[in-house]
Amino acid sequence: MRISGKLRKxxxxxxxxxxxxxxxxxxxxxxxxxxxxxxxxxxxxxxLVNAIKNFSIICSRADTADVVxxxxxxxxxxxxxxxxxxxxxxxxxxxxxxxxxxxxxxxINVSYRSFLLATSSLRPYQESITSVLPCFxxxxxxxxxxxxxxxxNKNEIYVEWASVFLSGDYLNLVNKLRNFVDTFCEDYxxxxxxxxxxxxSRFEYMYWDAVYKMESWPV
Length: 219
Prior knowledge:
The protein is mainly alpha-helical. It has helices spanning 3-10, 12-19, 22-29, 34-60, 65-81, 86-92, 97-101, 107-122, 125-131, 133-145, 147-151, 156-163, 168-184, 190-213.
């Protein structure tokens, strides 16, 4: 089993909780209250902008031009898969891009992206590329896990949003990220990679939970 597969197996108990989370189940079933989805979309766009910045840091730490090109390809895939159509989605929900850019990021959003940026800036390169994998990979697995629910979903906005994570471009992005980890982390201490992967998987679960509860700062 390659490294990414081992990491996925070790985080299986967390990912199972993600698959079963009410936000995820209700979204794919079409029963999620729209105000929760609207809250999620604003936070998610804000998170994704910072994810692109994070990839730029990772790219700047690459050792060879070939690796820089590979990461640049990932940034391009991310921009064309998830970001494509986001402005249209925001418009359908009654928002503009400026609303998403200026949203007050909630606590988990801030702590999650701060962890990623700190890892990419301060930790070895192998840990930084491992840290970005759970988010993108788990979204594709969520979509596969709930594909049957999606086929019966009557909410066109939810179907359109979720279908992105089953697209060829998105799955190609996930495969590229897995290949980075499998290629560049082969000789790196597995326990450190596991700690990073588990921590970020936990952040993923906490993020879903926070948007379902529509959490905000206490003061």
